[in-house]
Amino acid sequence: MYRSFFSILFLFVCTVASAQVDTTKPHSISAIKPLQRQLRFGIDLSRPVMNILVNNRHSYEFIVDYNLPKDLYLVLEGGFGGSDIDYPDLKYTSTNAFIKLGVDRSMLQRMFPEDWDLLFVGARYGLGFVNRKEATFTTNDQFWGSTTGIVPGDNMTAHWAELTAGIRVELFKGLFTGYTIRGKFLINQGPFRELPPAYISGYGKGEKNTVFDFNFYLQYAIRWPSKP
Amino acid sequence: MIKKDALFLACLGAMFFFLTACEQDRDPCLQPTSVPMRVIAKRPLTDSTFVDSLLPDPVWLRIDTALGLVYPSNTSSFSLLLSPLTDSCSYALMPDSSAASSIDTLTFYYNRNLHFLSNACGFTYFFSLQRIRTTTNNIDSVRIINSDVNLNASAPEHVQIFF
């Protein structure tokens, strides 16, 4: 857990330190406000790639954010996925859906009102609904012999908190790309001590209390004039 | 933010992504999955004091097969495996196999508790010792010290055998 914490801390420091380069520029003007409101929809492109590279799990994740006053962004995330464990001594499948709600705070001052590039830190609360199907297992005992058995399926609810940091860059008008790095901390560990799902979409490995994760987004923004 | 800096950070992010993508399908199992019951041989030094008893050439045999656990000479501590298939198992103990000494039979009675280790290691059984029955050719008595047979290596031994 400490290693994960310091890894996240290191990345936060690197990201914020990178931001310092730009904020020292002479054309940095404080209190430049956007003239528009922005609602941005996105998909995590890393997940379909991971679904191909890691063949025993799948996940699809989406994100919506909306800019609030004072450089804050209200963020809603959601998605679904599951895992399919097929080891010689353990077989089961699990599926889950999740939702996350949180805020991101921009760490950059705007250079002009249409500047929507973003470097941010934030926090999330995550809620996942997990269904683990019946599991079959084999215990390997070379002295007495192996045993096999079945563990009944179970429904579990996962609560977790996240610290986030990342960037968004407007490649073309309204089209953004960027990434978010996340440190995730499982709040209710109790239900996940006995055969946790191998992978919880939106969280990560179900048997770990601390998870380090990464998303790579493609987002599209719609904007409309803000009221004066 | 300057675009080239942003692209640099985006590349950095892509690197992290590919590092993350190199995850293994299954983590290696880095913990023991066999749950040994620790047995120690004792002998009286005085009426109230007992010391470890070094058995000359000890062999533990599974009573229903020819499978055995051969220990080095002059050993007093043993690790035995309880059967996950049934709620009791029997071992024959030869304290001195080289001298064809008499044999004692010990039957261990216990409850089995299925225990999940991890997705990497799967399941194993923990045991809760209930009682032990023994013959008394060489053995004087047996005593359960710690009935919980699990992977806690720092717990006291489970069974003492008095000669």
Which CATH top level class of chain A fits? Mainly Beta
Detail the poorly predicted runs of chain A: 1-13, 16-30
Biggest protein-protein interface?
A: A-B, 47 and 35 residues
| Helical coverage of chain B, percent range | 10-25%
What best-fitting shape of chain B do the alpha-carbon axes yield? elongated
Number of strands of chain B: 11
CATH fold name of chain A, please?
Answer: Porin
Distance between the termini of chain B: 81 Å
Tell me what portion of residues of chain B adopts beta-strand conformation: 35-45%
Low-confidence stretches of chain B: none
Largest sheet of chain B: 6 strands, antiparallel
Overall structural class of chain A, as computed from helix and strand content, comes to mainly beta
Oligomer: heterodimer
- What strand order characterises the main sheet of chain B? 4-3-6-7-8-10
- Helix content range of the residues of chain A, please? 10-25%
Sheet having the most strands of chain A: 8 strands, antiparallel, barrel
- From the alpha carbons, calculate the radius of gyration of chain A and give it in angstroms: 21 Å
Placed side by side, the strands forming the largest sheet of chain A appear as: 1-2-3-4-5-8-9-10
The helix/strand order of chain B is HEEEEEEEEEEE
Q: How many structural units, i.e. domains of chain A? A: 1
Overall 3D form of chain A: elongated
